[in-house]
Design brief:
The protein has 133 residues and is an alpha+beta fold. It contains two helices and ten strands, in the order βαββββαβββββ.
Length: 133
């Protein structure tokens, strides 16, 4: 029933105008549609929506991620726009220059992944990943 349906992410925003500015200025994304209390974005074959909310996501886990072909170039470009990447240094997992090597991946996606994380203006934890094939 659901396996042929499209999937779309929803991200909360306490301040939708601030979030719109962050996504435009920092990520170069503009909404393709809007409605009262919501902004819809399309990236590749997927889509996500920012919605006005009085609540916040925990930000303890990756809420949405983009798969890219050249993570260094994307991280460099986003840094030039003012995006701040998370630095992680825990046993068995460490970022170097904001990028981590993640062991293992789904067989169709490769043997591992290089990944980086940052927070949007609303505290949502977003990721960028490049499969290691």
């Amino acid at each position: 029933m659901l396996n042929h349906s499209h999937v779309a992410t929803r991200l909360p925003a306490r301040d939708l105008d601030r979030a719109r500015a962050f996504y435009a200025e920092k990520l170069g994304l503009e909404p393709v549609e809007e409605r009262p209390g919501g902004l819809l974005y399309r990236c590749g074959g997927g889509r996500f929506a920012l919605f006005a909310s009085t609540g916040t996501a925990s930000g303890d886990h990756t809420q949405m991620a983009w798969e890219v072909d050249d993570i260094e170039a994307v991280v460099e470009e986003l840094r030039s726009r003012g995006v701040v990447f998370e630095e992680v240094d825990v046993p068995g997992f460490r970022t170097v220059g904001g990028i981590a090597h993640v062991e293992g991946n789904y067989p169709s996606a490769g043997t591992g992944e290089r990944a980086a994380w940052f927070r949007d203006s609303e505290g949502n934890l977003l990721g960028i990943g490049q499969p290691v094939r």
